[in-house]
Design brief:
By secondary structure, the protein is mainly α. The protein has one domain. Helix content is 61%, strand content 0%. The chain contains three helices and no strands. α1 packs across α2 and α1 packs parallel to α3.
Length: 66
């Protein structure tokens, strides 16, 4: 299923920011700092299991349950 990475990233950002634009930007920055570029993935991106695992790990570190 293509686009799972984009969906996970969007879910983490949405849940953590809860509508706050400041928290949205800081969450995106945390993805960059942890080595994942959220802008690199779109709904047509192929799903790499290693990247999916890394994103789930980042979500757990940020306190977001998926």
């Amino acid at each position: 299923m293509a686009g799972q990475i984009k969906s996970l990233i969007d879910t983490i950002i949405e849940k953590r920011s809860q509508g706050s634009s400041v928290l949205m930007l800081t969450t995106r920055a945390k993805f960059y700092l942890k080595g994942v570029d959220p802008d690199r993935y779109d709904r047509l991106s192929s799903d790499d299991p290693a990247v999916i695992a890394r994103i789930k790990e980042i979500g757990a570190e940020l306190g977001v349950t998926l």
